[in-house]
């Protein structure tokens, strides 16, 4: 996957989707929490605090002994990593000359000290860094991670760490009969968009409510007869019973109307215009309003397209419904296939109560496919 492609994916570490910097060995000059702020870093000259110039990033003190500095981030959206950006914006005389990134997968909510004992895997080997630049690194692993660890050699400052990837839901925490099928955290993803001039369409599917206009999706003003749209692959095949189209914070720039169409990609080609059918017919919208619409839910869908007329912005798109049996199977196998080996052993021997030998046997049988039945022990674990 190219850099131009993976930078359009969600930032799994961002504070906007629930990411958190759970530990850093040092943050003397600038706080670790700045690493995952959604906004681009800024700099103001001659803004000095008690510890020197104020930086919008994470900065450690100058080392006078051997060692390196580290920060551990809990991903707001655990998933498969496709690319990492280490941004040293405005750190020019105080940037680290090298950096690396590791990842791990664990259950629960361990502390930073406990995470030190996790099974870390290198996803970005030690690489040279320059001051005041964004550094782009491809990640090739197809495993699902919950945490990343940034190491800088030996010290210095990093403005932002972006961890782009594809969220993978944990089926143990899903109520398959009632969930938002369009939620990033459950594995839904943007597959196309007509315009993303002011803000990214991934925001539509983000957790929580938008707090400002910039946390939604907004297009440029159209000067033709067309309309803007965004397409979504749902978390899994399902039926949608309730739609929420939220224009909160969009007051002079909300769409006048919107519609939602759906397609079942298991039986029809989504590229065929005749494969699509109405989920929510064209409906008038109000500015700065959470609109909720009851739907028939009588047809199964795998993909939807939201059309807004003619342009404008929307804060969130929610599509509540139920996964089909196929959908539940897809979520379960997607999660199981992507478990790092050590995490898979921990889950199967711990929560599922299997022997180490049986857990190893199940993991060795991966990948499970759409035509593969879940092993009995895994089906029991997932309810």
From TrEMBL:
GO MF: allantoicase activity
InterPro entries per the UniProt record, alphabetical: Allantoicase, Allantoicase_dom, Galactose-bd-like_sf
SUPFAM superfamilies tied to this protein: Galactose-binding domain-like
Hydrolase in keyword set: yes
Domain of life (superkingdom): Bacteria
Any Pfam family: Allantoicase
EC nos: 3.5.3.4
GO annotation (BP), single: purine nucleobase metabolic process
Domain (Allantoicase): residue spans on this chain: 18-167, 187-322
This protein's UniProt keywords: Hydrolase, Purine metabolism
Keyword Hydrolase attached: yes
Reactions catalysed, as given in the entry: allantoate + H2O = (S)-ureidoglycolate + urea
Pathway listed: Nitrogen metabolism; (S)-allantoin degradation; (S)-ureidoglycolate from allantoate (aminidohydrolase route): step 1/1
HAMAP family: Allantoicase (MF_00813)
Similarity comment: family membership: Belongs to the allantoicase family.
Name this protein carries in UniProt: Probable allantoicase
The species this protein was found in: Solihabitans fulvus
Taxonomic path: Bacteria, Bacillati, Actinomycetota, Actinomycetes, Pseudonocardiales
